[in-house]
Amino acid sequence: MLLMLVGPGNLACSDKGGPGNAEWRVFAIEYGRSPRIGRSMLILGDKTKKKVPFAWEAWLVLGKNRKILVDTGFKDDELARHWDVRDYRTVPSGLAELGIKPGQITDVVLSHAHWDHIGNVLPYTHARVWMQKREFEWASKLVSKERPSRWGVRLVDIRALGVVRSRGLLHLVGKGAAVAHGIIFHDGGGHTKCVQWLEIRTGGPVGTVVLASDNAYVYENIKRLIPTGSTSKPDLDRLALKEMLKVASRPDLVIPGHDPGTFKHFPRVAKGIVEIR
């Protein structure tokens, strides 16, 4: 069953706010789940050797005239098998649950250059693609024909961004850039060269939502102000986490990149999709 979010009398937003008087509404899309990921990857300094569930996520921000996808997931069955991703689907399949086609996405925001965040960007043929310029340049220099995959960056994904650039749709931006009114880039920690987090001022009663992406894998990173196990600059991570908590209207509105708890904490609107409110 499709839950249509984009027609009259449904969940779409308006310029002066839609339902609840909001300019923007924010949704989390789960496109698969790995049942056993080591906590040492998620939590810096963890020595327990425990394995925990790990959600693979993208996010959708809806306004009256903009449908903004934050990160694009990936399309690679081999990678899904390697990471033991259960109930794997592509992000376009998740959007279909909401009655949204890739061609209807007006903007794609990429938080950083890792394969599970910039893979499968090409279906969004009409979308402006926004990315931190320093991150794009770093990732582009990192991989080559001789070294097609390095530090979570894949040549195939960088080449796809080259296609987007040839369409005139790649927007490389600087620190503090605004994607739209109330949607703002912020520099993050040491997950990649210039990983970003996104501030979303909804304009409604929800207030400000923060999409932390991989500046925090799970809520524990945020609550304990403890970086992920994959960071190279933990002090920067702590500063970024503190800033996110200042910006968000409530602590639970800082949304980590891979915590299955997101899909229990917020109201479900479709299969594997919740609204952040």
SSE layout and pairing:
Blueprint: E1 25-38, H1 39-42, E2 51-62, E3 67-70, H2 77-82, H3 91-96, E4 107-110, H4 115-118, E5 128-132, H5 133-142, E6 149-150, E7 153-154, H6 155-166, E8 170-173, E9 178-180, E10 183-187, E11 196-201, E12 208-213, H7 219-223, H8 234-247, E13 254-256, H9 262-265, E14 268-270, E15 273-275
How would you describe this structure to a colleague?
With 277 residues, the chain is α/β, with parallel strands linked by helices. It has a single domain (19-275), classed as Ribonuclease Z/Hydroxyacylglutathione hydrolase-like (Metallo-beta-lactamase, Chain A, 4-Layer Sandwich), CATH 3.60.15. Helices cover 23% and strands 27% of the residues. It contains nine helices and 15 strands. The strands form three sheets. An eight-stranded mixed β-sheet has the order 8-5-4-3-2-1-15-14. Helix 4 links the parallel strand 4 (107-110) and strand 5 (128-132). The longest helix is centred in the C-terminal third of the chain and has 14 residues, at 234-247. The radius of gyration is 17 Å and the shape is globular. The protein starts with 24 loop residues before the first strand and ends with a strand. The relative contact order is 0.18.
